[in-house]
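Listing S7. Sequence submitted for prediction.
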Amino acid sequence: MKRSGTADLPLHYGQVPQWLADRMKKIGGAISLAIIHEYGRDEFLRRISDPFWFQAFGAVMGMDWHSSGITSSVMYALKRALNPISHETGLYILGGRGKYSRNTPAEITYIKII
């Protein structure tokens, strides 16, 4: 299977509607936990770092497959779903887009404390 090529992703402005953000949190969290519990944290990280898998994951969560905002939307949903149970998974999702990206150093410091 050829695993190279290009894709034209239109730039989408605005934000994900709340109903979709909530759905993405629920579905993304459930899938992530299933992978972590069945295959381990390292396998989850391997999968989520694969761009083809990540794009498909975002589509399953409800994002348009060609959306330019899929990365930030998926990671925000996972941050909301997984950070409250980080003591169980050992995973912390930090940062965000825009003004939230500037909170990353404080988030790192907070995690070092706990």
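Caption to Listing S7: primary sequence and predicted structure tokens for the chain studied. DSSP finds six helices and no strands in the chain. The mean pLDDT is 89.
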